[in-house]
Structure formats: structure tokens, C-alpha cells
């Protein structure tokens, strides 16, 4: 007997999992066969509906074959798992985007890979026996197979809770969280399946649906939303530790058994997916970044060992609950260049003109070329970038390009370049400026571009030279939604997050507001360390208190200015710039320029500007990281 039975019946394509003794676990061969059948039926005019079910009463599908992942991974064969995930995720996307109804009957356990097969379709049916879960964080993975998208769409903070606790959802909770659509008692399933197969229509499902049982999680919503509202795993853990009652205690106990890196990355994935209009491909892409690295850089092999192989239930995770470095998360969620996740009917390559191939622009253009896009580049200096065709002028780079990207030093140069390239661009093309410039310049250039029939975007970046090389930049984007949608595939290549901030100029506004906060908080952080020194307070003790208390900030927790304290930062490398002090000075100047134009009172921003101007122009700050401000305060008194 095979592990599955694929056939056509009436007006329907049918897929039945037939290995109940193995809880219908999903194998690689099953994924490929199901994908092939779905592709065939998609083109078949005689097939109007796809029905997916499983034999046995214990499980629809309790996940994938993780023993095989362990066996191949421990032998050093990482390619098997990476290929499995690529092909499985392509199948998941095919189900989620399928043009015909896909009906799944989810009895018993539906977990892991079973969620990708059974919960991505259009009509998901549960019964009293249904138990749906995403338990991946318990073995060193993240909720995948598109499950992160379902979690991101769940009400309130249910997604965070379900995703990192691995909580099992009965039928009521599955409906509440968006993992299922209909409750129908299993006794009614045979007759309903016969109707679906005969008619090739899903209309009978709604007629057969009944009121679902209660959802226990509904009564916990207030607690879940309160404790899981934080930005990071550290925030969630701190909230639970400060909480009282059984919920906080039991939840913290559950999380203490799971892989901290997996949980931290799960929260980050969910937060990214809530930006803009997430879809299944974006979710799978983020999941794949993690799973591709899960065996080499994550905790997957250790998690499987403890749960399945040795069964000692004592995994030795890389990190502690509140000790996951931001750099570790960033590394796990960087785009995968060497084995790109592809989908059916993949986006075609674009023609791109790139103007400004400096320290930031060159690696950004190189990443676009590596992803298969046709890139022509121009810079006033003679620059050679792998994969980028050099041209002799900005105009030549812009001619025939669907997207023209600029990365320039200031607003005056942006205006000059825009005046040159806008007449050379075809109507409907995107002018995408990634420079950090003043808001007025961004809006004036956008107005000129729009008058010429172009789509204009201002998209300054955060992440520095390292982020440009690694493809982990954050883009703050202003401009028309249709322009953002057209450029979105490029943002996904060059960065890890792109936030649409509204109309033209709002990207620059977001960047300067963000960096004004950063400049102010870094000064405050440096002042506090200098004060702690003079009060005889150990720096590590101060960090341990502040980083988990109300003084928490990115400047303290992720970019600590004190050497040897917290995650590795430029302070540990002699303050070699990650973000130079003179660039902070520039951004603070732009913020004050904007504040004057908007008649906004920003005394802290003005004070930060004055301090950084003194630090860069009159002291020894030029050429050093902006966190080197700590050295200034160490040697100064109040006089």
C-alpha cells in the first residue's frame, strides 16, 4: 500500500493520505506527487474542485519526516533538507493561490507540514477530534509551511502566543485563530464528500456547517494580548515574569523548554508580515530564510535529538530565553542567495538602472544582479560591480529601465540627477530614491516624476554598509501604493523589511524621525554609562538592569556603546564606524530643517544636533562610530 492515493472522481481531484500508522506524516515523495497532481488539475477544465483527506481517526497529518532531516543533517548533508523545504513551500504556495476550491477534512492531529497541506486551502473543515498546532519552536524551527501567515492574521496577539508556545487548537480555537473555516461533525463527512465529488462545487459545505464548540483561547485574550504585545522575545519573557497567576507561570514554563532563537525569530517574522499587505509568498520566503540555515546555524539538529532520537527532553539550546542577540536573529533571516526559493509563475527579471554605486549603492546593485535582474549602473567614479553593466551616464542607465534606483549624497545632487533621468524614463516606470535627503527635495522630485507619468518613491534605508552587503536593509518608503507594489520584489532582495509610510516624502520623514530618536537615545545611553562609572556602578550590572527595565532601548540593548557589554557592537572594534558620527550629524541636521519647516518644537533633537556637531567638528568624532560619544562623556565633568 502506498503512502497516498491520488485520483479523479466525478468533477473533483482527490488526494488521500494513507499511512495512518505514521499519523499520515508527509514525506518528500508525497509533496512532489501532490504538487504534480495540483498542476495537472489546475489546467483540466473537467476538474472543478480539489478534496484532500486522510485515512484513520488519529490524524489528518501530524507533520513531516523529521527523522530523515536528522539523519541527513548529522551526516553533513544539509542539501536534502533545504531541497525538501524549497519544494514543500512551493507546494504550499500553490495550494494557497489555487484558482479552484481546495477542501480539506482535518480530523485528529494537524501539525507542522499538515498545516501547510490542510490549512492553506479555501475550505478547511474541522470536527470535535481536530487538534491543530504549530509546534516547531520546540525542536528549533519556526512555524513554517505558510503557518506564519495564518499566525500573523490571527486576532490580537494570538499568533505570537500560538506560534511560540505550540498550543494545540481544538475546533473552536482553530476557527477563532483562522486555521479553519467550518465545523462539521465527522459523522456527516462521508455524505458531504460524496456531494462535493459529484457536483464539483463547494456550496454544500456552508449548508452542512454547524455552530462550533467554545474557543478556550477567547477567555484568555486579555492576558495573551497583554503579555505578548512586546516587540521582542525579551519583552514577552519580562512581561510573563512580572505577571501573576497560573497563565503567566504555565506559559513561562512552556517557553523555557523551547528554542530561544526560534521563538525570537518567530516573533520577528510575524511582526514583519503585519507590515503592508502580507501574502503567502512573503511568508514562505521569510520562513525559508530560517529553515535553510536551521541545521547549520540554528538548533534544529539538537532539538530533534532531544525530542526524537535520545528522547531525553533536555535540549542544549544556543541561547537563553532573554539572551538572543539581535545579530543572531538578523543572520537567520537574511535573504538566501545561493538557493533561491522559487514559485510557480515566478516574477520575471526587471530592467533596472542604478545611479550611485558608492559604499551602499554598489552592494545593493550587486544583490539585484545576483537575483537575476538586468542592472545597468552609473557612478561619477569608475566603479566595477559584479553583475552590473557599467554605462557612461545617468541618462543611459535610465533609458528603457522599469525601475531607476538612486543612492546619492544629498538633496541638491538628487535634484540634478532627477532632472537628467526623468525625461529619459518611460511612462509607468518607477523612480526609486534610496538616498537620505531633506523632505522638500524628496517631495519636489516626486512631483516632477509624477508630472512625467512616473511612479516616484522615496525609500531611505537603515542598516548601514553591512546591511547593504547582506541584503538586510530596512526601507522606509513614501509614494503611491502602486509604485510600492511594483518595487516590493526589489525591496525583498535588497533588504529584510520595507514599510510603506504613506505619501511622497514620508519615507524621508520616517527616517529622520527615527534617527532623531536614535541620536537622542544614544547620547542618553552614553551619559548614563559615564554617570554609572562616576557613581561606582559596574557597567555590566547597569546593563543587566537597564536592558530589562524601563530604560530599554535599541541603543542600549542592540548597539551598546560600552565595550564588552551586551551584543557585539562597534564599541568592541575600537568604534570603527557601523554608522559614522558625521552621518548622524547629517541626519540630525535634516530633522531640524524639517522641524523648522513644520513649525515643530524639538528641543531634544536640537540639543542632540549641537552635541554631535561639537563632537564631529571640534572634537575627535569624525571617522568614528556615533556611539563613540561615550568616550567624550567619560573624560568630562559638569564644568
UniProtKB/TrEMBL annotation:
It catalyses: a (3S)-3-hydroxyacyl-CoA + NAD(+) = a 3-oxoacyl-CoA + NADH + H(+); 3-hydroxy-2-methylpropanoate + NAD(+) = 2-methyl-3-oxopropanoate + NADH + H(+). This is 3-hydroxyisobutyrate dehydrogenase. Keywords: Branched-chain amino acid catabolism, NAD, Oxidoreductase. NCBIfam families: HIBADH, PRK05617.1. It comes from the Bacteria. PANTHER family: 3-HYDROXYISOBUTYRATE DEHYDROGENASE, MITOCHONDRIAL, 3-HYDROXYISOBUTYRATE DEHYDROGENASE-RELATED. Gene3D superfamilies: 2-enoyl-CoA Hydratase, Chain A, domain 1, N-(1-d-carboxylethyl)-l-norvaline Dehydrogenase, domain 2, NAD(P)-binding Rossmann-like Domain. One of its GO terms (molecular function) is NAD binding. Belongs to the HIBADH-related family. GO terms for biological process: L-valine catabolic process. Its EC number is 1.1.1.31. Pathway: Amino-acid degradation; L-valine degradation. It comes from Thalassococcus profundi. Transmembrane segments: none annotated. It is an enzyme of class 1 (oxidoreductase). Residues 505-630 form the 3-hydroxyisobutyrate dehydrogenase-like NAD-binding domain. Residues 351-502 form the 6-phosphogluconate dehydrogenase NADP-binding domain. Residues 13-331 form the Enoyl-CoA hydratase/isomerase domain.
Amino acid at each position: 500500500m502506498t503512502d497516498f492515493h491520488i485520483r479523479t472522481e466525478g468533477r473533483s481531484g482527490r488526494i488521500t493520505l494513507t499511512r495512518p500508522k505514521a499519523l499520515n506524516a508527509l514525506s518528500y515523495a508525497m509533496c512532489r506527487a501532490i504538487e504534480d497532481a495540483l498542476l495537472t488539475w489546475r489546467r483540466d477544465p473537467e476538474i472543478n474542485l480539489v478534496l484532500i483527506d486522510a485515512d484513520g481517526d488519529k490524524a489528518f497529518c501530524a507533520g513531516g519526516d523529521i527523522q530523515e532531516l536528522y539523519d541527513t543533517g548529522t551526516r553533513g548533508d544539509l542539501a536534502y533538507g533545504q531541497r525538501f523545504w524549497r519544494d514543500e513551500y512551493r507546494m504550499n504556495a500553490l495550494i494557497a493561490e489555487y484558482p479552484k476550491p481546495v477542501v480539506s477534512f482535518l480530523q485528529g492531529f494537524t501539525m507542522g507540514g499538515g498545516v501547510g497541506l490542510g490549512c492553506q486551502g479555501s475550505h478547511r473543515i474541522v470536527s470535535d477530534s481536530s487538534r491543530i498546532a504549530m509546534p516547531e519552536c520546540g525542536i528549533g524551527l519556526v512555524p513554517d509551511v505558510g503557518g506564519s501567515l495564518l499566525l500573523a492574521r490571527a486576532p490580537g496577539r494570538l499568533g505570537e502566543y500560538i506560534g511560540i508556545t505550540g498550543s494545540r487548537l481544538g475546533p473552536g480555537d482553530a476557527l477563532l485563530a483562522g486555521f479553519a473555516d467550518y465545523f462539521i461533525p465527522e459523522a456527516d463527512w462521508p455524505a458531504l464528500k460524496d456531494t462535493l465529488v459529484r457536483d464539483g462545487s463547494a456550496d454544500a459545505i456552508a449548508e452542512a456547517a454547524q455552530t462550533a464548540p467554545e474557543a478556550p483561547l477567547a477567555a484568555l485574550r486579555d492576558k495573551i494580548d497583554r503579555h505578548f504585545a512586546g516587540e521582542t522575545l525579551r519583552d514577552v519573557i519580562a512581561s510573563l515574569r512580572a505577571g501573576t497567576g497560573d497563565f503567566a507561570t504555565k506559559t513561562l514554563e512552556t517557553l523555557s523548554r523551547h528554542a530561544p532563537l526560534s521563538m525570537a525569530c518567530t516573533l520577528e517574522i510575524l511582526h514583519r508580515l503585519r507590515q503592508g499587505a502580507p501574502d503567502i509568498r512573503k511568508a514562505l520566503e521569510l520562513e525559508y530564510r530560517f529553515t535553510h540555515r536551521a541545521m547549520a546555524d540554528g538548533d534544529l539538529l539538537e532539538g530533534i535529538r532531544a525530542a526524537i532520537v535520545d528522547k531525553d527532553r533536555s535540549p542544549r539550546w544556543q541561547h537563553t530565553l532573554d539572551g538572543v542577540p539581535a545579530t543572531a536573529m538578523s543572520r537567520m533571516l537574511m535573504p538566501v542567495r545561493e538557493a533561491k526559493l522559487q514559485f510557480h509563475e515566478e516574477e520575471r527579471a526587471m530592467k533596472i538602472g542604478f545611479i550611485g554605486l558608492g559604499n551602499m549603492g554598489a552592494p545593493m546593485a550587486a544583490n539585484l544582479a545576483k537575483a537575476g535582474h538586468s542592472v545597468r549602473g552609473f557612478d561619477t567614479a569608475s566603479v566595477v560591480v559584479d553583475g552590473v553593466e557599467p554605462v557612461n551616464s545617468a541618462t543611459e542607465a535610465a533609458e528603457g529601465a522599469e525601475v531607476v534606483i538612486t543612492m546619492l549624497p544629498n538633496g541638491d545632487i538628487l535634484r540634478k540627477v532627477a532632472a537628467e533621468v526623468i525625461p529619459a524614463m518611460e511612462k509607468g516606470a518607477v523612480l526609486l530614491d534610496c538616498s537620505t535627503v531633506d523632505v522638500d527635495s524628496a517631495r519636489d522630485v516626486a512631483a516632477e516624476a509624477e508630472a512625467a507619468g512616473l511612479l516616484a518613491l522615496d525609500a531611505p534605508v537603515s542598516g548601514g554598509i553591512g546591511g547593504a552587503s547582506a541584503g538586510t536593509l530596512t526601507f522606509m518608503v513614501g509614494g503611491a501604493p502602486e509604485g510600492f507594489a511594483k518595487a516590493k520584489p526589489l525591496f525583498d532582495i535588497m533588504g529584510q523589511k520595507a514599510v510603506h509610510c504613506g505619501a511622497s516624502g514620508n519615507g524621508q520623514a520616517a527616517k529622520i524621525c527615527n534617527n532623531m530618536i536614535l541620536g537622542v537615545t544614544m547620547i542618553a545611553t552614553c551619559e548614563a554609562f559615564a554617570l554609572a562609572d562616576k557613581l561606582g556602578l559596574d557597567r555590566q550590572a547597569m546593563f543587566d538592569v537597564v536592558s530589562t527595565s524601563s530604560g530599554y532601548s535599541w541603543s542600549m540593548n542592540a548597539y551598546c556603546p560600552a565595550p564588552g557589554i551586551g551584543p557585539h557592537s562597534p564599541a568592541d572594534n575600537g568604534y570603527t564606524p557601523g554608522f559614522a558620527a558625521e552621518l548622524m550629524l547629517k541626519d540630525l541636521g535634516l530633522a531640524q530643517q524639517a522641524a523648522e519647516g513644520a513649525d515643530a518644537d524639538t528641543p531634544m533633537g536640537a540639543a542632540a544636533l549641537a552635541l554631535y556637531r561639537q563632537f564631529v567638528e571640534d572634537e575627535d568624532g569624525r571617522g568614528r562610530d556615533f556611539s563613540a560619544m561615550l568616550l567624550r562623556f567619560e573624560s568630562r565633568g559638569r564644568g
